[in-house]
Amino acid sequence: xxxxLVRHGIASDRIGGAVLNxxxxxxxxxxxxxxxxxxKGLKRLGVKPDVMVVSPLVRTRQTxxxxxxxxxxxxxxxxxxxxxxxxxxxxxxxxxxxxxxxQEIMLVxxxxxxxxxxxxxxxxxxxxxxxxxxxxxxxxxxxxxPNSSGVLKWFVTPKIACLLESK
Length: 167
What we know:
By secondary structure, the chain is of the alpha/beta class.
């Protein structure tokens, strides 16, 4: 099973006006554009998620919507509250068990949580794995719940993904 971990794109830093709290911060125009380029680069790599699991926060939902559009995802996004900041890998893995028949699952979340989930999938304990905004990695696992260490197949920064898109 292929697991893709994605950090949301560049989001507005401002809270005010219609943005009442951190959870409502939207992607910036740059964030939307970069996320779309990253998605196109991932598509060139053959990424085709069956399922997309996303944090309930606005910036992650917007990131996931862009990805889903480029990948022509046929099913709706699956919202997982445990992907919001502060969620635990074990809770996320329990949520993911409903997708045990999927071949490719994409998780869209926040830093440092996507790094912690990646470390947990790799059996790497407290290893810090920092993700840039719109950064993506692929970890292959034998099944859900992950009962053994996964294998890191690749880690792509937005700059690299955008270069892939332009080829």
